[in-house]
């Protein structure tokens, strides 16, 4: 099975397990979209911005000596966006609605990022 399809299946499982999640997008660290579970046509733009934010987050942790990146979480007035490094080559971005259980978002986001990283490792 193709990498993008397997990643999309993991993202679909994430949305099914966690009712507050509105969608997700996976991309390469270069910003190329691999799979998209978002409504509308925001996937390519979200992928490009996700890669940039991942790079900035990693750099900030290096500069400040705070260790390896686990996640970047953005809280907005209409919900949350969480970014995860899914192995060395993939970024997973997850959107959740307002009032979302942030603990569950973080737990399930990390679990899905690990699953996506495993899929990518098998594909190599």
Using brief descriptors, characterize the structure shown:
124 residues; alpha+beta; 5-stranded antiparallel sheet; 3 helices; 5 strands; globular; Roadblock/LAMTOR2_dom; Roadblock/LAMTOR2 domain-containing protein
Largest sheet: 5 strands, antiparallel
| β-strand amount | 25-35%
Number of strands: 5
What is the distance, rounded to the nearest whole angstrom, between the alpha carbons of the first and last residues? Answer: 13 Å
Order of helices and strands: HEEHEEEH
- The chain-level mean pLDDT equals 94
Range of helix content: 40-55%
What overall geometry do the principal axes of the alpha carbons give?
globular
Verbal overview:
- This protein has 124 residues and is an alpha+beta fold.
- It contains 3 helices and 5 strands, in the order H-E-E-H-E-E-E-H.
- The protein has helices at 3-17, 43-64, 102-123; strands at 21-28, 33-36, 72-76, 79-86, 90-96.
- It has a 5-stranded antiparallel sheet with strand order 2-1-5-4-3.
- It is globular and about 35 Å long.
- The two termini are 13 Å apart.
- 36% of the residues are buried.
- The mean pLDDT is 94.
């Amino acid at each position: 099975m193709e990498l993008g399809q397997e990643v999309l299946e993991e993202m679909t499982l994430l949305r099914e397990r966690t009712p507050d999640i509105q969608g997700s997008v996976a991309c390469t660290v270069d910003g190329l979209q691999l799979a998209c579970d978002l409504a509308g046509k925001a996937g390519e733009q979200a992928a490009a911005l996700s890669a940039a934010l991942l790079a900035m987050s990693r750099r900030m942790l290096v500069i400040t000596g705070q260790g390896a990146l686990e996640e970047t979480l953005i809280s907005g007035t209409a919900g949350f966006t969480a970014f995860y490094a899914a192995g060395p080559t993939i970024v997973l971005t997850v959107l959740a609605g307002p009032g979302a259980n942030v603990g569950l978002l973080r737990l399930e986001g990390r679990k899905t990022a690990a699953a996506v990283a495993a899929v990518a490792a098998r594909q190599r």
